[in-house]
Amino acid sequence: MSARATSLGFDAARLARIDAFLAEKYLAPGKLPCAMTLVARGGEVAHWGVQGFADVERGAPLAEDTVFRIYSMTKPITSVALMMLVEEGKIALDDPVHRHIPAWRDLGVYEAGFIGAWRTARPQRPMLVVDLLRHTSGLTYGFQNRTNVDAAYRKRGIGVLPHKDGTLDTMIEALATTPLEFSPGAAWNYSVSTDVCGYLVEKISGTPFPQFLRERIFAPLGMHDTAFEVAPEAQPRFASCYAAGPGGAMVKQDDAAASSYLAPPAFVSGGGGLVSTAADYLRFCRMLLNGGALEGKRLLGRKTVELMTQNHLPGGKSLSDLSQSLFSEAAYDGIGFGLGFSVTTDPARTLLPGSAGEYSWGGAASTYFWIDPKEELIVIFMTQFLPSTLYPLRRELRTMVYAALE
Fold first, then answer.
1. Is 283 found in the same domain as 187?
2. DSSP 263-290
3. Residue 134 is part of a domain; what is its CATH number?
4. Helix (H) or strand (E) holding 344
5. 257 and 198 share one domain
6. Residue 87 is assigned to a structural domain of this protein
7. Cα Rg for the chain, rounded, in angstroms?
8. What is residue 360's three-state secondary structure?
9. Which CA distances in Å does 113 have to 10, 106, 118, 151, 287?
10. Which residues pair with residue 379 across a beta bridge?
11. 7: domain CATH number?
12. Is 261 found in the same domain as 191?
């Protein structure tokens, strides 16, 4: 692997020290159960570090084909699915969302009150499809714990995972009677917007959302382990998920042997419901880096991918200018948002090495990926630890990967 890393323009010793760093800082002290670091360049894998345990208590070692909960790394996949329908002329980015969800025509913006006694104002403009893709819709997540609106999300179970009773249809119905946090386009707020994108894919295509993803994305790309549930034959490869417990101790949050992911979910979350492997997600990333195609299978046009990976925040602003969210899977300074992922607009403002135009996102269990078209670079990090914000893993990983480039 070191010879290949060198041929791909890396200092092999510097790449190797990433694993040593993760082992010493996070694995040995019991801060993480496992760490998988996949670095690819020019279509080839330069480094694939596999450390720790898929299940600590059972002593099951992590493996290259371990299946992970990718949570919000589902969002770019759902966004690609919706953009496929945009390319087919079945929906447009500037369509009002109520054209496709008539019950949302009269959605108001929160002024005061609570469930059953809302006081709302008319939005400055209707919510557009592009607002869903870039999280400027006025929707929110219940875990924000910031306003009466996200408290209503918690009470109604909107966007909750796992959601054993709700469906995409019941989510849309609940949102029809819940006010927006702000007028669409006025701010950025991490939200259930991408779950709504999944609903639109299903409604417009006339195909169940999991089937659409399977037939239009996973099968063409050879992503055989990616789905909304773990297939029976893959269950021995499924990792348990851990969380920060009392006093900082790591505790098991979801046992792989008894997980809800072992059966198809009622609520199919385009915002966070998929499981996958590093190899599968690499194929998805390679498709994007290749301009929408992989090994003769084209999912999107090259110009569509270019459009998706530009900053779409109003006025060309950054997340630090527009965000009112208490949570994000990305830092704010020097970062904008495209159609499904964050986009670096000004590397100097991030205070991290990188390139303008790179795009990325992460998941709640501390998974992360980024694609740097200028360097032909793909990096995928997999683990299973909640929350993703406890450790500066992503900052450290970016610093060390770029430091290894010759």
1. no
2. S--SS--TTT--EE-HHHHHHHHHHHHT
3. 1.20.58
4. strand 342-344
5. no
6. no
7. 20
8. strand
9. 57, 18, 5, 11, 46
10. 39, 370
11. 3.40.710.10
12. no
**Of 152, 184, 205, which residue sits at a domain end?**
205
Backbone angles phi, psi at 218, to 5 degrees: -65, -45
Q: What are the counts of helices (DSSP H) followed by strands (DSSP E) for the chain?
A: 14, 17
The predicted-structure confidence for 228-255, as pLDDT tens digits, reads as follows 999 999 999 999 999 999 887 899 999 9
Q: Which residues, including other chains, have CB under 8 Å from residue 354's CB and lie 6 or more apart?
A: 344, 347, 372, 398, 402
Structural domain of 162: 94-205
Residue 99: which of 129, 122, 135 has the closest Cα? 129
End residue of a domain, out of 163, 187, 205:
205
User: Quick one: CA dihedral 273, 72, 392, 406, positive or negative?
Assistant: positive
Look at residue 89 and tell me if it is in a domain: no
Could you tell me if 62 and 168 lie in one domain?
Answer: no
User: How many Cα atoms are found within 13 Å in the side-chain-facing hemisphere of 50?
Assistant: 13
Nearest C-alpha neighbor of 32 from the set 402, 386, 405: 386
Element (H, E) at 53: strand 44-55
What's the rounded Cα separation, in Å, for the pair 251 and 348?
Answer: 37
- Please tell me the distance from the alpha carbon of residue 405 to that of residue 286, in angstroms, as a whole number: 19
d(CA 316, CA 331): 17
Residue 84 to residues 98, 101, 197, 210, 388, Cα–Cα distance (Å) = 20, 19, 12, 15, 30
Say yes or no: 232 and 309 in one domain.
yes
Six-digit token pair at 262?
Answer: 């072992």
Clarify whether residues 171 and 218 are in a common domain: no
Whether 22 is covered by a domain: the verdict is yes
Q: What percent of the chain has pLDDT over 70?
A: 99
Q: Is residue 195 within a helix (H) or strand (E), and if so which, with residue range?
A: helix 193-205
Give tens-digit pLDDT for 14-24.
999 999 999 99
Residue 303 lies in a domain: yes
Nearest to 191 by CA among 204, 203, 178, 202: 178
Residues 180 and 71 both lie in one domain: no
pTM of the model: 0.97
